[in-house]
């Protein structure tokens, strides 16, 4: 594992978030999506559920929902609910907020060059 990286900037000390915080944020976000999926599918009629499950597995729908959830929240709010609870945020290599392009890439490719999770105050 990588050691924590501490970076001094005029705005204060920023410390790269550890793996535990990143994983907890991801678990919170996944739990929200799974709860949403279960809630929505519990109200759908059985014939619609049968049509949805036939060609595609349920896990695929959950992955699509997770990607859309991350995309919308990161683009519009710069963080997900899990990131907010864990007090972490995305910053680029220059420790600046992500551009739109970097946000879109960060949603789908967690390890893009120079983008990372940092402890931050909200």
How do the strands and helices of this protein lay out in sequence?
Blueprint: E1 6-9, E2 12-15, H1 19-43, H2 46-53, H3 58-77, H4 81-86, E3 88-91, H5 100-108, E4 116-119
Antiparallel strand pairs: 1-2, 3-4
Helix pairs in contact: 1-3, 3-5
Task: Provide an overview of this structure.
The chain has 122 residues and is α+β, with helices and mostly antiparallel strands. The chain is built from five helices and four strands, in the order ββααααβαβ. The chain has a two-stranded antiparallel sheet with strand order 1-2. Strands 3-4 form a two-stranded antiparallel ribbon. The model is unreliable at 1-11 (pLDDT under 50).
| Model regions low in confidence, pLDDT < 50 over at least 5 residues | 1-11
Distance, first to last CA: 27 Å
Q: What number is the mean pLDDT?
A: 76
Give the number of DSSP strands.
4
| Biggest β-sheet strands, sense, barrel | 2 strands, antiparallel
Query: How many distinct helices?
Result: 5
Spatially, the strands of the biggest sheet line up as 1-2
Task: Please tag this protein with its features.
122 residues; 4 strands; disordered N terminus; alpha+beta
Quick description:
With 122 residues, the chain is of the alpha+beta class. It has five helices and four strands; from the N terminus they run E-E-H-H-H-H-E-H-E.
């Amino acid at each position: 594992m990588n050691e924590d990286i501490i970076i001094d900037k005029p705005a204060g000390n920023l410390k790269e978030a550890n793996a535990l915080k990143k994983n907890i944020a991801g678990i919170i976000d996944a739990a929200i999506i799974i709860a949403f999926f279960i809630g929505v599918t519990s109200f759908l009629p059985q014939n619609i559920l049968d049509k949805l499950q036939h060609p595609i597995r349920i896990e695929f729908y959950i992955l699509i929902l997770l990607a859309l959830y991350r995309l919308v929240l990161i683009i519009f709010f710069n963080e997900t609910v899990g990131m907010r609870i864990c007090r972490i945020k995305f910053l680029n290599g220059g420790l600046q907020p992500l551009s739109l392009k970097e946000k879109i890439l960060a949603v789908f490719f967690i390890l893009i060059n120079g983008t990372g999770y940092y402890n931050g105050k909200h």
